[in-house]
């Protein structure tokens, strides 16, 4: 007999005979409920233990999913700054002079850097920023099953969707922008690829407007061209560099923050930026910034580690501020 049944049984022995007879049935029911709860809790603990042990085993046995850059061996390319990004490029915005390069022609997935082209297409189409768009089930991510703070049914003006897509990298907002383009999503993606050709981005291909698909691919050289084009639009500069922004969703105010912590740094003067991440792409970052008295475009792709793209940007900044003494641009070895 378990301790719970013994406890209940001893309690019944102290009752008068008539009370015991009257109370035996509910006591037995109570005992059964206690026993069921105990068994359930023991089962739950056992399941949690098995799951935890399995997770540890899987973490030890199964390697982390590799990025395309890792698969291609791009991380074996050495550079004087020991960057964690397998692809890097620093270019003078005015003269197109390349100050630093590492595998700049490698074509890789670009994750949410995609949203920079998405925003450029919406802006140049001159669609009304006041038109209210609705998040639908079509905007829910079935590619990576990523979460979103914009629930199905959320209604926001196009301008707010654009702001959230650039600043907070909101996937549902970016997809909604594409869906509400004349001709729908298919026409929008066609416009993205057409714009890439117009800009001379010959290494670039887009499959959708969010960056969740690894089929969205580009090179550092192409992305530098995109940053330069996007920087020409004041609204893209403003929206992409907002430290935070609140939007009214129904009766609630939801606060969003910039995915790039450098925009809050007093040591950076950033004119435009976009971050990106999916496992196939690694951590990515593109920026336009005023550094060392020059307007520069910086591209970092396939960085290994959650904070490594920020660390790489800081290394490049320090190198540039010191005058790049004794360091020449790295000769690209990637394809």
Relevant terms:
335 residues; alpha+beta; Beta-lactamase; five-stranded antiparallel β-sheet; two-stranded antiparallel sheet; 11 strands; 41% helix; globular; disordered N terminus
Strand-helix topology:
Elements lengths: L2 H11 L3 H45 L6 H4 L13 E8 L5 E5 L5 E2 L4 H11 L7 E3 L20 E3 H10 L3 H9 L4 H15 L18 E2 L1 H11 L3 H7 L3 E6 L2 E6 L12 E9 L3 E10 L2 E10 L4 H14 L14
Antiparallel strand pairs: 1-2, 1-11, 3-6, 4-5, 7-8, 9-10, 10-11
Could you write a compact summary of the structure shown?
The protein is of the alpha+beta class and 335 residues long.
Structure description:
With 335 residues, this protein is of the alpha+beta class. The chain has two domains: 3-61; 68-321, DD-peptidase/beta-lactamase superfamily (Beta-lactamase), CATH 3.40.710.10. The protein is 41% helix and 19% strand. It contains ten helices and eleven strands. The strands form four sheets. The chain has a five-stranded antiparallel sheet with strand order 2-1-11-10-9, with helices on both faces. Strand 9 (270-278) and strand 10 (282-291) form a beta hairpin. Helix 1 packs antiparallel against helix 2 (17-61). The longest helix has 45 residues, at 17-61. It starts with a helix and ends in a 14-residue tail after the last helix. The active site is at 112 (acyl-ester intermediate), 115 (proton acceptor), 169. One of its GO terms (molecular function) is serine-type D-Ala-D-Ala carboxypeptidase activity. It comes from Azohydromonas caseinilytica.
């Amino acid at each position: 007999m378990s301790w719970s049944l013994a406890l209940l049984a001893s309690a019944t022995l102290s009752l008068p005979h008539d009370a015991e007879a009257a109370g035996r049935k509910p006591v037995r029911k109570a005992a059964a409920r206690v026993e069921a709860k105990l068994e359930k809790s023991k089962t739950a603990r056992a399941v949690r233990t098995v799951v935890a042990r399995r997770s540890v085993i899987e973490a030890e046995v199964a390697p982390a999913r590799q990025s395309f850059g890792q698969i291609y061996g791009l991380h074996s390319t050495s550079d004087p700054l020991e960057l964690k990004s397998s692809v890097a490029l620093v270019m003078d915005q005015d003269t197109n002079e390349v100050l630093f390069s590492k595998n700049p022609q490698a074509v890789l997935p670009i994750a949410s850097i995609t949203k920079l082209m998405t925003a450029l297409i919406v802006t140049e189409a001159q669609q009304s920023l006041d038109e209210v768009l609705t998040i639908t089930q079509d905007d829910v991510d079935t590619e990576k099953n990523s979460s979103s703070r914009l629930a199905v049914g959320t209604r926001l003006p196009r301008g707010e969707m654009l702001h959230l897509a650039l600043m907070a990298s909101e996937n549902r907002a970016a997809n909604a922008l594409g869906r509400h383009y004349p001709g729908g999503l298919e026409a929008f993606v066609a416009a993205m690829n057409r714009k890439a050709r117009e800009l001379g981005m010959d290494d670039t291909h887009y499959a959708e407007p969010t960056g969740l698909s690894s089929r969205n691919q580009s090179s550092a050289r192409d992305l530098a061209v995109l940053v330069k084009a996007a920087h020409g639009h004041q609204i893209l500069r403003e929206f992409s560099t907002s430290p935070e922004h609140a939007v009214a969703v129904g009766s609630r105010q939801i606060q969003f923050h910039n995915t790039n912590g450098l925009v809050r740094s007093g040591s950076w003067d950033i004119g435009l930026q976009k971050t990106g991440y999916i496992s196939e792409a690694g951590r990515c970052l593109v920026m336009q910034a005023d550094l060392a008295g020059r307007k520069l475009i910086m591209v970092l792709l396939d960085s290994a580690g959650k904070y490594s793209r920020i660390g790489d940007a800081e290394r490049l900044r320090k190198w540039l501020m010191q005058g790049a003494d004794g360091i020449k641009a790295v000769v690209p070895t990637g394809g």
